[in-house]
Design goal:
The chain contains seven helices and 13 strands. It has 273 residues and is an alpha+beta fold. It folds into two domains: 137 residues, 2-Layer Sandwich (Fructose-1,6-Bisphosphatase, Chain A, domain 1), CATH 3.30.540; 117 residues, D-Maltodextrin-Binding Protein, domain 2 (3-Layer(aba) Sandwich). The strands form two sheets. An eight-stranded mixed β-sheet has the order 2-1-3-4-5-6-7-8, with helices on both faces. A hairpin with a 2-residue loop joins β7 and β8. It is globular and about 50 Å long. The chain starts with 5 loop residues before the first helix and ends in a 6-residue tail after the last helix. Bound molecules: D-MYO-inositol-1-phosphate and calcium ion (2 copies). One calcium ion binds next to β3.
Amino acid sequence: MSLPTPLINVMDAAARKAARRLVRDFGEVEQLQVSRKGPGDFVTEADRRTETILFEELSKARPGFGFLMEESGVHGGESASERWIVDPIDGTTNFLHGIPHFAISIGVEREGGLVAGIVYEPVRDELFWAEKNQGAYLNRRRLRVSERTNLADALLATGIPFGDRIGKKSFMAMLNAVMQKTSGVRRLGSAALDLAYVAAGRYEGFWETGLSPWDVAGGIVVVREAGGMVSEIDGRSDMLYGNSILAANQQLYDPLRKLLMDAVRTEGVKLTE
Ligand code: IPD
Ligand code: CA
Ligand code: CA
């Protein structure tokens, strides 16, 4: 067992403070979601409030850091070499519908590379955390990716593009291929938790297109430090700012990447289509 580093403690404290209010708000949503008007505006407020609490707490603890936040964008620290990348609620649609599967995600970018991250799931009180070269943890337990080596035994997670999101055609091609070759696909609705669950060995892999930096910044280091592989689906390494992400255990990373890429090539579509 290792003790959390000072950076992890800062994120942990900020996330827990924001989460106390968020869990109360979630209780309110459970009431509102059966009402005719629904909890839409209330959830938008909860999202903003959570982000504000995170901003205040993280700023107090590390005044020199900049921010990239989902709701309010870039803050300060133009000259800062370090910044927080924050998603106040990842899994908003779940939150809105009273489904208890959402998380606060915070990543730390230093000199352009990710060096630490947390994904905090307040309903089950699960804090997934990792700092570069220090290992990955779920609360105080060390995390390792799964050891399954056969695609046929693999459980995968993904996100389904909706509305004007990119990647609908490629998604259908990839899903079709994965359905034939694996033991199942889940779409639980939080990319941050999908990454954390790969790190915890709950899924063998996760892929999605069209995500934003705040969806994945918290989870990428957690997967890597748990011994997993993360890249774009085509193998390039800009999964933080690029268009796609694939995370998997060591053994299944290559077969999965091949399966997904062969599927889009066979269909003659691009990952962004
Ligand atoms: C969403 C979740 C979801 C993914 C979406 C994201 P949000 O983030 O991560 O799993 O499929 O593409 O936008 O909107 O709940 O913060
Ligand atoms: Ca998100
Ligand atoms: Ca969000």
